Amino acid sequence: MRKVVLMMSVSLDGYFEGPNREIDWHQVDEELHRDLNDRLRVMGAFLSGRVTYQLMAEFWPTADQDPAAGETMVDFAGIWRDMPKIVYSRTLERADWNTTIVREVVADDIQALKAQPGGDLVVGGADLAETFLKLDLVDEYRIYVHPVLIGKGNPLFRDSDTLRSLRLVETQAFGNGVVLLRYERA
């Protein structure tokens, strides 16, 4: 059965974005981007909310046509275009690039998706992640901790009454100081 993987970058103090939605503090260099590409290319689908989808759709479909684009950017542009995508939105009317629009996250529908053949399903976007967490749909966490304290912003994990025990299955330190912490359900 496929897994739902929450894959996000956070500051050391737990924020996925600053108070004005900025992510310019992310430290994605060639080594980290290559690793992300390798992990994402084997996924079965990208699951995202409208905001994340629209940000990605504004840049990645043609990013590989920029003469200044590096090898890892060109590689990811192809991964993003070709990967099946599900965008969860009540307002989005149209989406391109192998994308299906779904109006609500329904736990039974996610379980049915997990039962289909193919690679794991990666959740991107904090609002969608929060919904998946509330419905207890996340099987694995891949958290990329960046060596920066931003002081305030939007936390990845919001207040919850649910205790979830996890098992550490991988750590990886990158040359730029980013550390991957990978956990599965205990």
Report on the structure:
There is one protein chain. This protein is an alpha/beta fold and 186 residues long. The protein contains 5 helices and 10 strands; from the N terminus they run ββαβααββαβαββββ. It has helices at residues 30-40, 50-59, 71-82, 107-115, 126-134; strands at 4-11, 15-17, 45-49, 85-88, 99-102, 121-124, 140-146, 154-155, 166-173, 179-185. The strands form 2 sheets. An 8-stranded mixed sheet has the order 5-4-3-6-1-7-10-9. A two-stranded antiparallel ribbon has the order 2-8. The model has no long low-confidence stretch (mean pLDDT 93).
List the helices and strands and how they pair.
Blueprint: E1 4-11, E2 15-17, H1 30-40, E3 45-49, H2 50-59, H3 71-82, E4 85-88, E5 99-102, H4 107-115, E6 121-124, H5 126-134, E7 140-146, E8 154-155, E9 166-173, E10 179-185
Parallel strand pairs: 1-6, 1-7, 3-4, 3-6, 4-5
Antiparallel strand pairs: 2-8, 7-10, 9-10
Helix pairs in contact: 1-3
